[in-house]
Amino acid sequence: MALQGIQIDQKKLYCSICLDVLKDPVTIPCGHSYCMNCIRSHWDGEDQKTEIQTCSIIRSEH
Predict the structure, then answer these.
(1) pLDDT, tens digit, 9 for 90 and up, residues 19-34
(2) 25 DSSP β-pair partners
(3) Residues contacting 10, CB < 8 A, separation 6+
């Protein structure tokens, strides 16, 4: 019986903020993954008047 290889979506291994391989990866509620430091920096840089933390991918699609 031959083993089937596991296929991984290469795009899911990279952070869409720093464009590098995920370091200390985290997945946020929308399902997108980022480096922990990248998403923290993104959220820290958002307007401090709002408590809503957005996804950089979803936000760029709108």
Answers:
(1) 999 999 999 988 899 9
(2) 35
(3) none
Between 9 and 16, name the one with better pLDDT: 16
| CATH number given to 11-44 | 3.30.40.10
The token pair that represents 57 in the structure block: 């991918």
- Specify the pTM: 0.65
Mean pLDDT within 37-55:
75
Give me 60's structure tokens: 């760029």
State the Cα–Cα distance between residues 36 and 39, nearest whole angstrom.
6
- Spatial distance between the Cα atoms of 9 and 34, rounded to a whole number of angstroms: 15
User: Cα(5)–Cα(59) distance, rounded to whole angstroms?
Assistant: 34
Question: Residues 11, 31: contact at Cβ < 8 Å?
Answer: no
Break the chain into its structural domains and give their ranges: 11-44
